[in-house]
Amino acid sequence: MKKSLRYKRVVLKLSGEALGGDCSHGIDVEIISSLANQIKEVTRLGVQIALVVGGGNIFRGETITGKLVMERTVGDYMGMLATVINGLALQSCLEKIGVPTRLMTAIEMHEVAEPYIRRRAIRHLEKNRVVIFAAGTGNPYFTTDTAAALRAIEIGAEVILKATKVDGVYSADPNKVKHVKKFEQIKFIEVLKRRLKVMDATAISLCMDNNLPIIIFNLSKEGNIKRIILGDKIGTIVK
Fold it and tell me: In the prediction, which pLDDT does 155 show?
């Protein structure tokens, strides 16, 4: 018996670090190829999927601005441009395997991408195109986590899938602390109270106010995206 879809329109949040994999800098070819194939698989099920990409594998503004080399605003804009590089790479990989894709940016750069227009983004999704949102919100001081929450709300997504290197949310960093508790489910307010590093506080507050759940899962395990779409309990759900 064919399983029904749990979610039909989703936003997949990808950090730059996730795309970088084990590489100290740049894009891990194996990870981005695997990701493209997983996205192709879920689009074949009829799922409308939008991606929000970070840029930490190419440039992290705080590492320079924290040393007072340049203004925070300049570092943030440089980070936004890094997300466009990742977006172009993802678009190219997806289209190479036959997945129609549109890259939309919050900062206009007509030669490489479409400007973000909400109604146009929704129309692309309705035509079964994968939409990639790059350049964050287009504003300094806002993270790509916040951009993911904002875009998900704007396009009417049912859930945000946050791809990470761990398999859920823990009471403490499992790489640093031995005895930690993994949460299968946790409330937004608990995430804020415990200051758990799920997404930044602005993004969590946006999702909480708009009743938009977040699922944190391990990107490195192939098939996880499809399993979540089909309703399997993977990772941690924040709602």
Answer: 98
**Signed CA dihedral, 60, 65, 70, 76: sign only:** positive
How far is it, in rounded angstroms, from Cα 185 to Cα 63? 33
Per-10-residue mean pLDDT, the chain, length 239 = 84 90 82 94 96 90 64 91 96 97 97 97 98 97 96 98 90 80 94 92 97 94 94 95
Domain with residues 9-238, CATH architecture = 3-Layer(aba) Sandwich (3.40)
Residue 194 exposed, middle or buried by CB count within 10 Å (0-12, 13-18, 19+): middle
* Structure token digits, residue 56: 């930490």
This model's pTM is above 0.90: yes
* Residues 126, 127, 131: CA angle, nearest 5 degrees: 80
Interatomic CA distance for residues 236 and 14, integer angstroms: 16
How is the chain split into domains, by residue range?
9-238
Task: State which H helix or E strand residue 149 sits in.
Answer: helix 144-155
The answer to whether the Cα torsion of 186, 188, 194, 198 is positive or negative is positive
3 state DSSP class of 40 = helix
